[in-house]
Amino acid sequence: MTNANNEDNGKPIVAILTVSGGPGYFRGNQANFEDIVRTGQEMGFPVYVVTIKDLKLRGEKVKGYTLNKDNKWEQQFFPLPQVIYNRIPLREDELKPGVRRKIKECLIHPNISFYNPYFFNKWHLFEWLKKSKSTGHLVPRTRRLRGEEDLQKMLERYPSLYLKPESGKAGKGIMMLKYQNDKPLPYRLKVQHNKNSTTYKGANIQRLWSRIKAETGGNRYIVQQGIELADVNNRPFDLRVLLQKTIKGQWSVTGVGARMAGYKSITTHVPRGGSIEDPNNLLATVFGSDTAPGMINRVKTTSIVIARQIERASGHPHGEMSMDLGVDTTGSIWFFEANAKPMKFDEPHIRKKSLERIFQYSQYLASKKKS
After folding, report:
1. Cα distances (Å, whole numbers) of residue 268 to 33, 122, 258
2. Which residues contact 145 (CB under 8 A, 6 or more apart)?
3. CA separation, residue 321 to residues 65, 165, 204 (Å)
4. pTM score, two decimals?
5. What gap in Å lies between CA 88 and CA 250, rounded to an integer?
6. Under 8 Å between Cβ of 76 and 3
7. Rounded to the nearest 5°, which phi and psi values hold at 188?
């Protein structure tokens, strides 16, 4: 184990926070950590990965991991970080008392800037956005799933409903409920599995309620008005927006991608059969090539307004978030989801810029602390 010294090049020491365990030194998306560390090194930042267990805030040195010249992880001792970028991989990890305590310590530490402290909860997001005039109209009608009567009432107002876990990710556990009055069994519940789905039919909500309860498995769920998304060849699509703060500490759109639902899938997530598409092409196909650029601009400005409101309402500083926005058949924009720990974007131009922005924002945070 060697000692790593920070040559004083005016660049802050950046640590990527995760948890220990797994086959290697630490858990989390190893390829993502490699990309982040390599980008930081190329930009001249002292950067390392640190686990909750090894982050001793009262010591002079911290045990961390960095990439050596052979691109292999190597354990070293580093100075205490000035900026901590939180990439704790799972909600379950973050909820552990020891992890919560360490995050709190980091947030109040006088010499450390800590960003993206916590995962978002879907219900909280909708509540936060409903509070503001600037974002309230972007949220589909959303309630907590409490019982079959709630579902019945909402189905009387909206032709289809989505049932989503409050703490879900990547489309896991999503269901769709429809009422089709021309069918002998008019209530239809579609349950999304890995790449396919199963449809259950019933004469009334009560018939489907036990299936819904079994699928939720005791987890908290929300019920949401179904939005008729724009589609190409009967495949609906939504937009993924990555927002990050810049070297000036301002929210900015790093990139916009599009995800198209798989055949007969109820979500657009790639692991569930969705595909990566070009947002300009899709919008041009549906709304015309003259309209598409203006719509992309509207998506960008809308997402910045949303990011500011989420950050304000959450009470914590955030440096980045990704967002799922839908465009309905009339061209209106809807908010579906935001992630405090964005998954990596597969589009190469978005990916490169997103890695650089992590360090540009870290530079801003460190200089703000100094001043």
Report:
1. 26, 17, 9
2. 151, 163, 212, 216, 220, 221, 222, 223
3. 25, 19, 40
4. 0.90
5. 24
6. yes
7. -125, 125
Where does residue 149 rank: exposed (0-12), middle (13-18), buried (19+ CB within 10 A)?
Answer: exposed
CB 73 within 8 A of CB 67: yes
| 244 DSSP 8-state letter | E
Structure-block tokens of residue 73: 């992880």
CB count within 10 Å of CB 43 equals 17
Provide the Cα torsion 187, 192, 195, 201; round to 10°. Answer: -20
- CB-CB contact of 364 with 246 (8 Å): yes
Give the pLDDT of the chain (371 residues) as one tens digit per residue.
545 544 457 899 999 999 998 788 899 999 999 999 999 999 999 999 999 999 999 988 999 999 998 999 999 999 999 999 999 999 899 999 999 999 999 999 999 999 888 999 888 999 999 999 999 999 999 998 888 888 888 988 998 999 988 876 656 778 889 888 888 888 889 887 766 778 888 888 888 888 888 888 888 898 999 999 999 998 899 999 999 999 999 999 999 999 998 766 666 666 666 788 999 999 999 999 999 999 999 999 999 999 999 999 999 889 999 999 999 999 999 999 999 999 888 888 899 999 999 999 999 999 987 76
Residue 174 contacts residue 162 (beta carbons within 8 Å): yes
Contact 183, 130 (CB under 8 A): no
Task: Write the DSSP symbol of residue 137.
Answer: G
Q: Which of 325, 319, 224, 343 is nearest to 283 (CA)?
A: 325
The pair of three-digit structure tokens given for residue 339, joined into one six-digit string: 């992630």
Please list the alpha-helical segments (H only) found in the chain.
30-42, 91-94, 97-108, 122-130, 148-157, 205-216, 279-287, 292-314, 348-370
- Rounded to 5 degrees, what angle do the CA atoms 102, 119, 37 make? 70
d(C-alpha 73, C-alpha 48), whole Å: 10
The Cα–Cα gap between 330 and 25 comes to 50
Distance (Å, whole) CA 322 – CA 342: 5
Which parts of 224-347 fold into alpha helices (H)?
279-287, 292-314
- Residues 314, 109, 250, CA angle at the centre, nearest 5°? 45
As a whole number of angstroms, the distance between CA 141 and CA 136 comes to: 10
Bridge partner residues of 86 (DSSP): 17
